[in-house]
Amino acid sequence: MNNNSIRVQPGAVNYYCHSGAINKIEEFFCKDELNASIYIHGEKSGESIQQYLSKEVRDSKNNYLVSGHCTHEIVDLIVGESSNPPVIIGAGGGTVLDIAKAVAAKLNKPFISIPTIAATCAAWTPLSVWYTKEGNAINYEIFNSAAFLVVVEPQVILEAPSIYLRAGIGDTIAKYYEADILTKKEKDIPLTASIGLVISKQIGDVLFKEGASAFRAMDIKKLSPSFIRVVDAIIAGGGLVGGLGERYTRIAAAHAIHNGLSQLESSKKVLHGIKVSYGILVQTALLKDKEELEKLYNKFLILELPTKLSDIGVDFNNRNDVNKVINTAIAPNETISLLPFAVDNELLYRAIETVEKLSK
User: Fold this and answer.
1) Containing structural domain, residue 283
2) pTM of the complete model beyond 0.70
């Protein structure tokens, strides 16, 4: 019998995604509690959410404007200056929310998550990715508690640059393609992981079907049911999949490709989900599923996701750069090792080459 024990953390205790959702905060916390909260935000995210927040949160006695990466230094600084706050509030993208989650975990306080972009499921997932001050990823830490409350104001997401939503779509589409491989590796997997796989397929279908419509809503700055479903799929759906299946529904080859690409200076400014979506194509090429690869390619064109290395600032003809990507992606500790076969330099190079040939 396989040892398939996993830790199931479905996610947020409460989730709201609708116009006026931020007002729900006041149903759970009184004005004095909100005024004594630690409020953590970025510069742009703080501005975008300002008009929706209550006066008590805006005027919080513990207001932190953060920038850069989620580091132990910034988290320890905030924790060290705290004086038993009743709740931690984070408003922003993945980095800001990772900092706020880590602060809440260290202080053992409830956490309110207010995402201002939908580029990842960071608002939902009970983990933070740690970096050095120089911006190098160290590891990630899974916390004992998820957010007590996630409130999504769709209008704020709607008015953010569309590239963030595009990245969120790419990152969330990967949930199914990576979970599909991970769940096939063993015959006997937990039922919750199987449920996570089903959900990953469902949210992927939503993104393929309604992603283009969501972008049109952003173009005209008008909320639509499709836009809200896409946001739900990224934030709630993406986070739920990983929480239900743990190692069976998290990351495989697509994220290993992302990690390889992240070694190149030319792609460092490319968002996480954009690089992951390219990794889906390479992973599919590794599996030699030509029919699925061609379907994905055409769907990626519609969603304006990358279909070749040049779309993310990398020259396929620069073999030194391509080798850097490959060497990192196939390192012993990388999740490409979770594929049902061994991947070496030559095999991965041929898969990348196959993806490049699609556009020709």
Assistant:
1) 162-358
2) yes
In a domain, 7, yes or no: no
Residues paired with residue 137 on neighbouring β-strands, in sequence order: 131
Check if the beta carbon of residue 63 is closer than 8 Å to that of residue 39. Answer: yes
Instruction: Please give the structure tokens belonging to residue 78.
Output: 């905030």
Question: Residues 190, 337: one domain?
Answer: yes
Q: What is the pLDDT of residue 1?
A: 39
Is 30 in the same domain as 121? yes
Q: Of 128, 159, 190, which closes a domain?
A: 159
Q: Residue 32: CB partners within 8 Å, gap ≥ 6?
A: 56
What angle separates helix 290-303 from helix 345-358, to the nearest 10 degrees?
50
Query: Is 2 part of any domain?
Result: no
User: 2-12: b or e for each residue (b if 16 or more CB lie within 10 Å)?
Assistant: eeeebeebbbb
Domain match, 193 and 305 both: yes
Structure tokens at 118: 């939908």
Strands 111-115 and 149-152: parallel
Q: 165: number of CA atoms within 13 Å, CB side?
A: 30
- For the chain (length 360 residues), average pLDDT per consecutive 10? 77 96 96 96 93 92 92 96 95 96 97 97 93 81 95 97 97 96 86 95 97 97 97 97 92 93 89 95 96 97 96 95 95 91 96 93
Given this model, what pLDDT does residue 139 score?
82
